[in-house]
Design brief:
The protein is mainly beta. It has six helices and 35 strands. A hairpin with a 4-residue loop joins strand 25 (512-515) and strand 26.
């Protein structure tokens, strides 16, 4: 990728100094969005021969019109969550970073859909209101979602119909980590860590006293309208920040030919988010706090109340005479009645600070703390049927030491507590209190063209079921080793080995009852042991020249893997028993880009993952193989790309699971960057997804048949920075 000149570089210079919620950076044109129409075998061959890395999605943006013909190099990108403020090229495992113009183009209404097209990352897709990232086939509590290093503590790890309380339109950068750097955020993050950076706590005083941005966007697929603003002002040592987003989207259209109609009933999403923050900023650091409130209403497609009264007889389901029970006042015909609605309210207080050179031998002291008060009601026919509450806090302190014998590193302490409760018809988990404490250390050592990294973390977790009084404690120690060798200019190879322990969640231990949203009857197991995963990851990257590439292969063997094993199924209802068995995940992911001219480039990329039980059998909802091809171009202030994404049929299914047909999608995007006479930069963008209006299903979704993916959708937006 190369920096633009002229108008674009002026805009970049202005915006590089800002710390606003929406960074309108124009320094890159990343082309990461498509997947080629390749057969899985062709994909594996392509990646094995030419490679492609996911580290910062190793690619080179099209060279600007005014640029010379010299071979480009990938720009340096700092990964905030790495613990040592490393560049993406220094990471021992692939790190995905979305920022600037690329982030503006990629953002969707949910975090999962925003990251869904990145190699190795898919989403849980539960209609339009809830979608969580899935990394290399792992989801739920195995993927931690952070807000600038602090855990979010919403209810999204409990069930896929619960939204992630993070607003993509307010993100300035999104990072996805794996390996040693992810380990320091909790040994439960065996899948990875998603860190969402924002500007709600100012870290610097604006140079001209103020800075900000405003954005409006709309799409046709759901009739969505959204607006966002961000403003930071400061004087002396004080800085204040305010930001907000309002979104109103109706039921979305699906591809042509769906038997359920043209739209998914109950897929609407209305969300309002606002934050205010205040910081004291000095020469050696800052200390600030912010208050964030989010309210949302979104539908739950596929919610089926015909299972009311179903229960278990041993390992079998029984739904006897309850089908005739209509005296409860509910209309259970989803096609004719109202779809249940989630009415969500989340309030969060954040405290963030950094002190540089706090005392001899240490270069930085960092603090991240958050308190969350989360609640959502599930409303049916105008009455509250179930209420979920989650009150939690998370505190993290890091101390970065000066080099000692060539070693540079971070030591830290993290502690958290979560009080979760569910009351009402679908209170399938009794009230629980989960407490966690972790100690960690991350060290690096550089020698010639080598960089070595090691991480160690010990965690203790207690999970108490308040109704039954049962309490379970788990201790786990995790370790990771990694190395990067830049064996010749522009080329590098990285490898890491991680042994991690994950304690079972409260839901896996104590669930007991019907869960209508996912059409399951869930049963926990209080005797579950900690998972022990052993993961090896090897990557190869080329970061300069007309051809840039990277490939990553991984193998993750997990002892005592915890999963919802389906014991029985009856008329669409499944009996899930949380069980343990050894399992193995293997996969390959990456991309390769060829610069054709200084204004034109082509990219091939894709991913595949296989997950099976070592004793025989497959795991459910594992993403299908994907591949794609993208053509990108720029001319003066214009940028554009067109891509074809091919998702293979997923017929490697678990017991009681159905295969999912494959599909192909045609997408394109175009943007124009300009300036007002005052020098204020602005951007207009248009993107069109699924232009052929293809009917497509997400195999990773619990409700794939009730909520197909969105059909043809046009999004247009304008963004101004000042």
């Amino acid at each position: 990728m190369r920096r633009r000149v002229g108008t674009a570089s002026a805009a970049h210079a202005l915006l590089q100094a800002t710390t606003m919620t929406h960074t309108f950076s124009t320094h890159r044109f990343a082309s990461r969005r498509a997947r080629p129409a390749l057969h899985p075998v062709a994909l594996a061959t392509l990646l094995a021969l030419s490679g492609t890395s996911v580290a910062t999605q190793a690619q080179t943006a099209p060279a600007p019109a005014a640029a010379a013909d010299a071979a480009p190099s990938l720009p340096a990108v700092t990964v905030s969550a790495s613990g040592l403020q490393l560049g993406a090229s220094d990471m021992t495992t692939p790190a995905t970073v979305l920022e600037g113009d690329e982030l503006v183009r990629r953002r969707e209404a949910t975090l999962g859909e925003t990251l869904n097209s990145e190699p190795g990352i898919t989403s849980s897709h539960f209609g339009a209101g809830a979608s969580r990232p899935i990394i290399r086939g792992m989801d739920g509590p195995r993927v931690k979602v952070l807000s600038d290093g602090a855990e979010l503590h919403d209810a999204s790890t409990i069930s896929p119909d619960h939204a992630v309380v993070s607003e993509p339109l307010l993100a300035t950068q999104i990072e996805v980590l794996r390996g040693p750097s992810a380990l320091v955020y909790g040994n439960g993050a065996v899948g990875g860590v998603v860190n969402v950076l924002d500007g709600k706590v100012p870290t610097a005083i604006p140079q001209k006293g103020y800075e900000g941005s405003a954005e409006l966007r709309a799409n046709s697929g759901a009739g969505e309208g959204a607006g966002a603003f961000s403003l930071t002002g400061g004087a002396g040592n004080l800085a204040v920040h305010v930001e907000g987003v309002a979104r109103d989207a109706g039921d979305y259209r699906v591809g042509k030919g769906w038997s359920g109609g043209s739209k998914v009933l109950g897929s609407f999403n209305r969300t309002d988010t606002g934050s205010v923050g205040l910081s004291w900023v000095g020469d050696q650091g800052y200390l600030g706090a912010a208050y964030t409130r989010q309210t949302a209403k979104y539908g739950l497609p596929g919610h089926n109340h015909s299972f009311d009264g179903c229960h278990t007889h041993g390992d079998h389901l029984h739904c006897g005479a309850h089908a005739d029970d209509e005296a409860d006042g509910h209309d259970h015909d989803a096609a004719a009645g109202d779809v249940p609605v989630v009415d969500l309210r989340s309030e969060r207080f954040d405290l963030r600070g950094e002190l540089r050179n706090p005392f001899a031998g240490f270069s930085a002291l960092r603090l991240r703390a958050g308190v969350t008060d989360y609640k959502h009601d599930e409303v049916e026919d105008g009455a509250i049927s179930t209420t979920f509450k989650n009150k939690a806090y998370d505190t993290r302190v890091e101390l970065q030491h000066e080099p000692i014998g060539g070693f540079k590193g971070v030591i830290g302490l993290q502690t958290s507590q979560r009080k979760f409760s569910a009351e009402g018809e679908e209170a399938y988990v009794q009230p629980t209190v989960t407490r966690k404490t972790g100690l960690f250390v991350l060290e690096e050592y550089r020698w010639n063209d080598w960089r070595f990294e090691a991480a160690l973390r010990h965690d203790r977790q207690t999970a108490e079921a308040q109704t039954s009084g049962i309490e379970r404690s788990h201790n786990g120690t995790s370790a990771s080793l990694g190395a990067v060798w830049k064996f010749t200019p522009g080329y590098q190879v990285g490898t890491s080995f991680t042994r991690a322990s994950r304690a079972p969640s409260a839901e896996e231990l104590y669930a007991q009852g019907l869960h209508m949203a996912t059409s399951t009857y869930e049963r926990g197991n209080a005797d579950l042991r900690s998972e022990i995963s052993q993961n090896i990851d090897v990557s190869l990257k080329k970061t300069s020249g007309d051809t840039t590439f990277g490939v990553s292969v991984f193998r993750n063997r997990i002892q005592n893997y915890i999963y919802g094993r389906t014991l029985d199924a009856l008329d669409g209802l499944q009996l899930l028993q949380y069980s343990q068995a050894d399992a193995t995940f293997t996969g390959i992911e990456g991309q390769v880009r060829q610069r054709l001219t200084r204004n034109l480039g082509i990219t091939l990329f894709g991913d595949t993952v296989r997950a099976r039980l070592d004793g025989g059998g497959l795991l459910p909802r594992i993403p299908a193989t994907r591949a794609g091809v993208r053509l990108d171009a720029n001319w003066q202030a214009w940028e554009g790309q067109v891509e074809w994404v091919q998702v293979a049929r997923q017929n490697r299914v678990a017991d009681f699971e159905t295969a999912t047909p494959g599909y192909g999608m045609l997408n394109l995007g175009v943007s124009y960057n300009g300036q007002f006479s005052s020098g204020t930069p602005w951007q207009v963008y248009l993107k069109a997804n699924n232009l052929t209006d293809r009917l497509a299903y997400a195999h990773t979704s619990f409700i794939k048949n009730a909520a197909p993916l969105m059909g043809r959708n046009l999004t247009v937006g304008v963004k101004v920075a000042f």
